[in-house]
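Onboarding guide, step 5: your first structure request.
Type a short instruction followed by the sequence, for example:

Predict the 3D structure of this protein.
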Amino acid sequence: MNKFFILALMSILPLSLSASGSDLRIVYGKLEFYIPNNPNLVGYLGTDSEILIAKYSDEPGKDIVGFSLDKEVNTGGCSPGVFFKSVLSKNKSECDVKAIDSFRYVFMKDRESGIWSSTNKEFFYFIGSDKSTVFLIKKGTNNKTYKIESNFLNKEGIKDIFSSYL
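The system replies with C-alpha cells like these:
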C-alpha cells in the first residue's frame, strides 16, 4: 500500500524522488536533497508552504524529515541572510532585536548552531538531540527561505541531506 501511495504521489507532485545507494534523492524547489532510503511514508501538502514529509516510523510524530518553503520567518526587517547571520553573531545588528531574541529562544536553546556554505547557498543550522532545523538560502536570489527539519537525524545525517552542495 505504501509503495502504491508513493508512486501515485510522485506522479502528481512537482518534485522528484529516486534511490541512489543508501539515500533517497529528492528534488524539491529545484534543489536536490538526499534523505535516508526506505521511508515508511512520503506525504506532500500543497499549501502555500509546499510541505513535504518523509516518515520513517509507525509511531505518530517520530522519525520525520520535513521540507517547506518558509514564508513566515520574522526576519526583523532584514533579508533572511542578514537576519540568520545576526542571530548567530554576538555583534549589534540592523535587524529588530526582538525578532533576533525570539528566534534565538526558539531555535538556539540547547542546540548547536552555525553556518555551512557552498558556492551559491548558505545553510544556517540549529541541531539538537530531539529536533533539528536548517534554513537554506540561495545567495543573490529573491530570498526564498527553505526550512528542513528532522526529529531523529544527528548532525552528520542532517549534513548528508545537503551532500550535493557541501
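Each response can be followed by summary notes, for example: Confidence is low (pLDDT under 50) at residues 1-15.
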